[in-house]
């Protein structure tokens, strides 16, 4: 993979309004909404002709290109240079704060530098004795501030900038740290009125981060050649785990050749009446995401296997076409998963809870299980960043 950058990108945007004045020298260039005028097309482009295959990922002025032909890459970057003014930055090493390390065997993504900035910014660059092995203790239940046992919750959270810290961690969780997704999602629910309990969990997350700053996702480049390209998903739910709303939590993760590419942990929009219903809703949300990913992959790799494999704890409601007393009330919007099964575009696979990586996104786990499931989506500790 290679990277490049468009020179003075905002000056290349086509203006939809007339410009009557110019800034004097010394002011930052740019106009109102010029970024939207520049970034109006889809961000992923692909090219196939004869034996040449190439993909270009574009985010505003940052361009990433991967191809089986370096000559094609050179032609593409040369054309961009003639059109806009373009700088070829060589092999991809950093993209939007994500470090990329490439070898003949694997590609590794991590955000070690950004993680260290978080620890330093929030005064948590502390000694090794303060590290911990999991981001959230098992059986931890968070709730809004209410009177508990006759005592009022303490609103005092010291000088901890709770919202800023959770927001910073969220960028990690959505980038290269799926192991943080669940706990960060839980903390984000209490950003308006955090209590000492929430701050305590936040500090534990940072202690965990201190010991895992160099953790990231590994993509094995040899897998494509050996067994082909396949998309696999896993979904799970934790029934009525939200103590304030009694809503359940959906969690899913999708892997491409065994390596994580999409994941989420979020509160469901309905109050599920049973564990089976919560699992069904989670499977439906995962099926929709799987269809989106498959549509992209179908265009990129037309020869790819079409059916999506989705591992779940409870597959009976998706594969059984009849409605029973406990399932006939379910809203029509959640029956999308059944339609996909009937069309043979989705295959539901029963997976034991101890082997389901989606458990990472629905509940706090013990250390042994947490590490096993993290390894299943190819999350590994990498050598520390060189100075």
From TrEMBL:
<protein>
    <submittedName>
        <fullName>Copiatype Polyprotein</fullName>
    </submittedName>
</protein>
<feature type="domain" description="Reverse transcriptase Ty1/copia-type">
    <location>
        <begin position="54"/>
        <end position="137"/>
    </location>
</feature>
<dbReference type="InterPro" id="IPR013103">
    <property type="entry name" value="RVT_2"/>
</dbReference>
<dbReference type="Pfam" id="PF07727">
    <property type="entry name" value="RVT_2"/>
</dbReference>
